[in-house]
Structures are given as structure tokens and as C-alpha cells.
Amino acid sequence: MWRMKAARINKTKEPLKVEDIATPKPSGEQVLVKVDSAGVCHSDLHLWEGGYAGPQGVFMKVEDRGVKFPLTPGHEVAGSIVEMGDKVTGYSKGEKVLVYPWIGDGVCPACKAGEENLCDSPRSLGVYQDGGYGEYALVPSYKYLVKLGDYDTAAAASLACSGLTAFTAVKKAAVKDGETLVIIGAGGLGLMAVQIAKAITGAKIAVVDIDDKKLDEAKKLGADIAVNSGKGDPVQGVKDATKGLGAEAVIDFVNNAKTAPNSFNMLRKRGKLVMVGLFGGSMELNLPLIPLRAFTLTGAYTGKYSDLVELVELAKKGKIQSVVSRRFKLDEVNAALEELKSGKIIGRAVINP
């Protein structure tokens, strides 16, 4: 088998190294995909940094959750099939595919319910096994592939995580026609959520962020209301837009110690808070308010394979579109992560190995 280049995390908080490694050979149900585009995601940043900021300043290490290094990160993978094991059916060499990366053990209750993304013993691509920051990626089974047809691989890549996460969050928000949905954060996930909410709900969409450029982009994609939380009280901004009542649902794509309390206080009676972001921290809850106002607090983490298939169909029909603002070569991987960390990327960035 030939050799390949891959950007690897050998040690957390140290620059990734582009290394020459053996290209894996697929067998059985496995498929080898030539990576055309790998999305650069905040989850990759958390891996690189070694964890998440937890409550009271406690650092939650990814290694405590079973992550092992060295590792080739990258869970948003789109490309074309180059080799297949002898048990693969329904696919052919050269076919363009998007990879569903949230692989489970197949035996836990979540997996049996079709929710491998919530597996008790996850084996996610680019997290617990090598992913797409390389020229090729080995997919454990053809059952995790979604056919792309002629759809652009750069636009498709981020659907596997940011798109799928946003899709799941919007579905969990379950807003009805005429209700107000607030989206906290106009990054890659937030901008995708605006489009998805526009495509599958009849809700009024409000977006909260500190960056006017990102808010402008949200408006272009269909947001009805933009609230700059750096220039005023975002809770009051949402209350003003809802006749003082608050929103039926809030999706917090930042979900840190500053945004979460605000998100909670934006809800009207019977409101639902969908917590998505992994930016860390903690918040103190006014416990009587939850039963008195019948609030629902829930989390959303990526999504099911069937939802990804549905999302790709929406993309193919032109209902949603990934905002790919930056493209990097494999040897520019550290610059890509630094730009994402510093908030310079509007929409999504991809690596083209």
C-alpha cells in the first residue's frame, strides 16, 4: 500500500505535525476515502487544547474521556472512494461521499435506538480513531457513508458536524409557525441554524452575537432580528422584539458562563433552552423558576445518521448552503486552528489535503 501525509496531534497544546504514514488498507465493510475537504471545527480545537473548561475552573481532559494520542483529527470528511473491502455493497470507486463520523459500539441502548452519536462507548472518527486531516481516511463501514452526487465536497464537509448539530438543535427546539427562535452565536453553527430554521420552520428568527459582520451575514441568510450583545443587554433586546414576553425557544451555540444565564432569561413561559456549545463554565439556576414557568432545558450533541441523510437532501435542493469562507492546505493546519480560535473565520473553514 502507498504512503500518505496526515496532520497529527502528538501532544496537546503543541503544533500539529504533518507526518508521512502508511495508508490503511480497507477490508470487509471498510472503505478508504480520498479526502477532498475536511472541515475545521471547534471540537478539533478542544482536542488540540486537550479538553474543556469545566465548572469552578476545573479542566475536563479529553484523555479522561478515552481520547488517545497521537491522533489524526478531523471529523467533517468529504471525498471520493478509492478502495473498498470485499463486503461493501451499493458503492463504487470514484463515488463522492460524505462520512458520518459519530460511530458507536453498536450494542449500547443509544446505538440500538439509532443514536450512535450518543453511544456509551463512542468510536467517533477524528476523535477516538484517525480522521480526515490527511490525504486518506479509513471509514469502518460503508453504512456510514452518504452519497453526494454532484454536490460540492467543500460545502458538504461541515454538514457532518456543524450542519448536523444545528439540524438536531433546531428540531429539538420544535418551534411552531409564528413563534420566536433565538440563536445565540453567529459562527458556523449559528449561521447554519438560521438557514435550517428558515427551511423547516415558520418561526421568527433572532440572532445574538457581538460581531456586526457575523450578524449581517445572519440577516442575509434569513434572520429576522439581529441583536448585538456587545452594544446592549441581549435579554432586553429579545424582550423588546417579543412584546416583553420572551422567546419560545433559545438555542445557545456558545453555552458558556456568560451566555447561558442570558439564554435562560430570554425564555417566555413554557420556553425551551437547547444547550449546544462546549465553551465551558457553569451557571447558577433560579430553581423555582423552572417549574413555575414550565421551562425545558435540554442538550443537543451532533445527530443521527438518518438526520444527516435528510440534511444532505436539503443541501442538494439548495435549501441550505455552507458558508465556506477559508480554505487551507494540509501544511497550513495550525494556521487554520489559530484563525478559528481567534474568531477570524466567518462561517466555516476547510482543509484541502
TrEMBL record:
GO terms for biological process: protein tetramerization. Its EC number is 1.1.1.1. Residues 11-351 form the Enoyl reductase (ER) domain. SMART domains: PKS_ER (SM00829). It comes from the Archaea. InterPro entries: ADH-like_C, ADH-like_N, ADH_Zn_CS, ER, GroES-like_sf, NAD(P)-bd_dom_sf, Zn_alcohol_dh. Its cofactor is Zn(2+). Pfam families: ADH_N (PF08240), ADH_zinc_N (PF00107). GO terms for molecular function: adenyl nucleotide binding; alcohol dehydrogenase (NAD+) activity; anion binding; zinc ion binding. Keywords: Metal-binding, NAD, Oxidoreductase, Zinc. Belongs to the zinc-containing alcohol dehydrogenase family. This is NAD-dependent alcohol dehydrogenase. It comes from Nitrososphaera viennensis EN76. The gene is adh2.
